[in-house]
C-alpha cells in the first residue's frame, strides 16, 4: 500500500494565537495517529502561480491512515482550537508507487 502525504497551506492567518493553539494540539495528535512531519514553514522559493504560504507536509502509511488521523477526537479538538484563525487548504495525496 502506498504512503500518503497530508499537505496543508495557509492562505491567510487572521489570528496567530489560534494557529499556535491548533499547532500545540495538532502536532501530538497527528504523530499519535502515525504521521511523520517531513517539512513545515515558509517555502524557500515559489514559482509559476506558487505562493509563499506557510506549508506543512506530513507522511502517513496510507490514505486511509491519513483520513483516520483527521477524524480522531484529538485532531478534531485541534480544529476547534483553530476555529476561524486561518484560511487553509488541506490535501491528502497518495504517493506514486
From TrEMBL:
**Annotated InterPro entries:** Dimeric_a/b-barrel, DUF1330
Q: Which superkingdom?
A: Bacteria
One Pfam family hit: DUF1330
The chain positions of domain DUF1330 read: 3-95
This protein's name: DUF1330 domain-containing protein
Amino acid at each position: 500500500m502506498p504512503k500518503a502525504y497530508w499537505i496543508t497551506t495557509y492562505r491567510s492567518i487572521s489570528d496567530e494565537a489560534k494557529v499556535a493553539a491548533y499547532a500545540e494540539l495538532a502536532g501530538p495528535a497527528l504523530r499519535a495517529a502515525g504521521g511523520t512531519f517531513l517539512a513545515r514553514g515558509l517555502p524557500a522559493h515559489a514559482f509559476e502561480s506558487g505562493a509563499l504560504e506557510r506549508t506543512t507536509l506530513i507522511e502517513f502509511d496510507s490514505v486511509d491512515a491519513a483520513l483516520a488521523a483527521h477524524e480522531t477526537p484529538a485532531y478534531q479538538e485541534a480544529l476547534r482550537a483553530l476555529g476561524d484563525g486561518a484560511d487553509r487548504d488541506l490535501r491528502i495525496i497518495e504517493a506514486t508507487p
